[in-house]
Amino acid sequence: MKNKSTTLTLAAMLCLGLAPRQVLAVSPAEIAFPVEEGTSCEHTYSNGFCTQCGEPQADYLKPETDGFYNLASGNDLLWWSRAVAANTPNANARLTADIDMEGITMTPIGEKQEMAFRGTFDGQGHVIRNLKITGTDRVGLFRFVTGGSYVRNFIMDSSCSISGEVYCGIIASVVGSGSVNIEGIGQEGTVTATGINAAGIVGVNPSACAILMSDCYVTGKVTGGSESAAMCAWVGGGAKLDNLWACGEVEGMEGEKYLYRGEVTWFRNSYGVHGNQGTIITQDQVQFGALAYMLNRYYCRSRRGTHC
Fold first, then answer.
1. What is the per-residue pLDDT across 138-170, written as a single tens digit (0 to 9) for each?
2. Contact, 108 vs 172, CB < 8 A?
3. HEC states along the chain?
């Protein structure tokens, strides 16, 4: 049976319709997998990987006609991450089912800065469970993302955790130029950094790449040594934040900056239970539906031109 928090989460997410966007298709021929020099392994594959050396199976998944890889399991997600890390940062994927990462050691998407992710990852409203990611600096499901990327429409539930020393979040670090689009993401798990810049959604953006974040929420606890926030611990330049809310505890917050740190060019219809950014709400408003009403009302007026 769903608890009140989960019911509110689903209600809030359902009210936030996101239009599909055009993406660039990536052909199977563009996917390049790293092969260790001098290997003599006679590969035997299972769930997309060699059972002896761990090399990804080149033809494990193939893109659909629209260029997207359909991911239906934790192994699918891991395989696609390895494909992205292998010189195809513009690859596109979507979840076609809820994903359970129990027992799977995840390789972050966009693991190397020079191969920062710039494709589209669409969760299609699905939930990721039991994802445990640990590291030192820049720790997250996405390690590096850059301009042109779309990351959207999924929830990391309370069984998930991200932990490291600095720069931790679902998206650890934004680099490069252009803009990164982050839409419809829910963070219900924990994020922990022993040093600076822990946040539920984005750890740090030290670049000229603008963060465009909308329709996201954080209910999980964020713990940082300092300079941390619920949504984004450092937004960088040109950020636009719209329709966000958070009610999770944040340790290591800078003053009253609960939702984000840094300067933004656009900040609308956002809510938090602490600090002085946006509209301050109570836990009761989150639990008993007042927040969902405010989010729905704003959506109707600003995006549909109607009154609710």
1. 999 999 999 999 999 999 999 999 999 999 999
2. yes
3. CCCHHHHHHHHHHHCCCCCCCCCCCCCHHHCCCCCCCCCCCCCCEECCEECCCCCECCCCCCCCCCCEEEECCHHHHHHHHHHHHCCCCCCEEEECCCEECCCCCCCCECCCHHHCECCEEEEEEEEEECCEEECCEEECCEEEECCCCEEEEEEECCCCEEEECEEECCEEEECCCCEEEEEEEEECCEEEEEEECEECCEEECCCCCEEEEECCEECCCEEEEEEEECCECCCCCCEEEECCEECCCEEEECCCCCCECCCEEEEECCEECCCCCCEECCHHHHHCCHHHHHHHHHHHHHHHCCCC
- The position carrying tokens 């513009």 is 90
Tracing tokens 């959207």 back to the chain, one arrives at 152
Q: How far apart are CA 200 and CA 5, in angstroms?
A: 17
What does residue 81 show for φ and ψ, rounded to 5 degrees?
Answer: -60, -45
The amino acid occupying position 68 is F
Q: Residue 229 and residue 227: Cα distance in Å, rounded?
A: 7
Q: Which residues contact 66 (CB under 8 A, 6 or more apart)?
A: 23, 25
What does the angle CA 145 – CA 149 – CA 152 come to, to the nearest 5 degrees?
Answer: 100
Please provide residue 84's backbone torsions phi and psi, each rounded to the nearest 5 degrees.
Answer: -65, -40
Q: What is the pLDDT of residues 167-220, one digit of tens each?
A: 999 999 999 999 999 999 999 999 999 999 999 999 999 999 999 999 999 999
pLDDT-based confidence at residue 83 (cuts at 50, 70, 90): confident
